[in-house]
Design a protein that fits this description.
alpha+beta; two-stranded antiparallel sheet; 3 helices; 2 strands
Length: about 80
Amino acid sequence: MKKTGAPDRDEMRAEYDFSKGVRGKHYTAYRDGHTTRVRRADGTTSVQHFTQEDGSVMLDPDVKASFPDSASVNRALRALIPENR
């Protein structure tokens, strides 16, 4: 049987139900760091702990909306740094 075309990508499938989902449920814990365990077919497990990269900064969503990229954040912060530190 030949497919009649690609499904409409803008529509959510009926079997997906996010009505009881909670936005940001794991946000704080994720920012503090998280551990990922990968179980391989040979029975071994790989464990890796992820944290924010040294020097990285997480912006709150309302602040992020005002800064489209890293360059704009850096310009704004440089304006706040005194010349003679």
